[in-house]
Design a protein that fits this description.
By secondary structure, the chain is an alpha/beta fold. It is built from 14 helices and 24 strands. The longest helix has 13 residues. Bound molecules: uridine-diphosphate-N-acetylglucosamine.
């Protein structure tokens, strides 16, 4: 197992190029199941989660030619519709194959993902919606067995809660269903939008893209013929590097970013005293000498993203004053609090609210990453902690951050990947 050794206190400078969005690429890879022809995906992030989902496609019988940022996928050769525990347990997002497999083949088995470090994360809304579209669903032996031998039919789906993965699964299922599906209370994250655009570009009529109400006119099991998809920039990776600039009081420039997608993060950093130069696909952050505290509440897009909550908490730790951070989406997404406190932070937790009292200094220590975004918050704090911080269990980071240590080293951080001796 690897860990990161970070010697804090270095100023950062220069440019960093943002990779493609993992959370856009995953549903897009799942959507390739809706086709029996070759499709090319470009600007994929070079991260473990992408390799895991591509491996699942090959296990189903698909053909995948993948080299770092480009994949050519042909799912004309799929022979199995079973997504096994071995893969789904590594990555919850594998549940995204449920909708497309069922829609194209009329049957599939997908291992139940189970809980994860940030909470229970059920898939009841995905299943209920598929049932409304005519699927028979049985849960047996840890697997969801879904059947629709005559194909799925269009339906009115009303999500009780806004769900990103649920919306994506149902959009994919609806694309090959018979008739029209309306999704009310749909998610409208940029990643959902790109998935809808990919499917619409393949000839499926979709109304309401980018809104909370989507109407999809299905092809009645006619497989789709996709055009090449260039994955959108990762808004969470971009936000994380802005936080790296803010916490180290360093001006850095992001290349290949979509400034529109990270408006809530830049707004919050502005309220903390940062200023920005914003171009079409570049942005430079200018942090103040002293950061002001921040109040934020996580919400669905375009609200403040839960995937940026941990990183902002790290920045708040180094601000002058008291910040309040409320997590509304996941019930257990504060695992980074105790690790930040180990570095000398002063964070007090009550239920879904964290009160952060800014401190003048943090001190290096051994700390443990618990989930993907919590890990990046620990790395941010380590960049300013006095002495050496070892961040253990960084396999979480490798799931979703493309070459984090390479990009941070390029900006001037003292960060080295090492192998645990035991
Ligand atoms: C996606 C993102 C994740 C992000 C999250 C919220 C991917 C691969 N992952 O996860 O990084 O943190 O959106 O922006 O894109 N829920 C239910 N029942 C369901 C489905 C969801 O109760 O059937 C609940 C969840 O437990 C959670 C909330 O709805 O409390 C939102 O979850 P959801 O939007 O589905 O998150 P994911 O798609 O899993």
């Amino acid at each position: 197992m690897d860990y990161l050794e970070i010697k804090g206190g270095k100023k950062l400078s220069g440019n960093v190029t943002i990779s493609g969005a993992k959370n856009a690429a995953l549903p897009i890879i799942a959507a390739t199941i809706l086709s029996d022809k070759e499709i090319t995906l470009t600007n994929l992030p070079n991260v473990v989660d992408i390799r895991t989902l591509l491996k699942l496609l090959t296990m189903l019988g698909g053909t995948v030619d993948h080299d770092k940022t480009v994949a050519k996928i042909n799912n004309g050769s799929i022979t199995s519709t079973k997504a096994v525990y071995e893969i789904v347990s590594q990555m919850r997002a594998s549940i995204l194959v449920l909708g497309p497999l069922l829609a194209r083949f009329g049957e599939c088995e997908v291992s139940l993902p189970g809980g994860c470090a940030i909470g229970q994360r059920p898939i009841d809304l995905h299943l209920k919606a598929l049932e409304t579209m005519g699927a028979k669903i049985e849960i047996k032996g840890g697997y969801v067995h879904a059947m629709a031998p005559e194909g799925l039919h269009g339906a009115n789906i009303i999500f009780d809660k806004i769900t990103v993965g649920g919306t994506e699964n149902i959009v994919m299922a609806a694309a090959l269903a018979k008739g029209t599906t309306t999704i009310i209370n749909a998610a409208k994250e940029p990643e959902v939008v790109q998935l809808c655009e990919m499917i619409a570009d393949a000839g499926v009529k979709i109304e309401g893209i980018g809104t909370n109400e989507l109407t999809i006119h299905g092809t009645d099991r006619e497989p789709l013929n996709f055009k090449t998809v260039d994955i959108i920039p990762d808004r969470i990776e971009a936000g994380t590097y802005l936080c790296a600039g803010a916490i180290t009081h360093s001006s850095i420039t992001l290349n290949k970013v979509n400034p529109q997608h990270i408006r809530t993060s830049t707004d919050k950093l502005e309220s903390m005293g940062c200023t920005f130069d914003i171009g079409e696909d570049t942005m430079t952050i200018y942090p103040p000498k002293e950061l002001k505290p921040v109040d934020l509440t996580t919400m669905e897009y375009p609200g403040f993203p839960t995937d940026m909550q941990a990183q902002f908490m790290a920045v708040a730790v180094m601000s002058k004053g008291e910040s309040l951070i409320e997590e509304r989406l996941f019930e257990n997404r504060f695992m980074h609090v105790s690790e930040l406190n180990r570095l000398g932070a002063d964070i007090w937790l009550k239920g879904s609210i964290a009160a952060v009292k800014g401190v003048d200094e943090l001190y290096g220590a051994d700390i443990m990453a618990t989930d993907l975004r919590a890990s990046s918050a620990l790395v941010l704090a380590a960049l300013v902690a006095e002495g050496t911080t070892n961040v253990h269990r960084i396999y979480h980071l490798d799931r979703g951050y493309d070459d984090l240590e390479g990009k941070l080293s390029g900006l001037g951080a003292d960060i080295t990947r090492k192998r645990e001796s035991r």
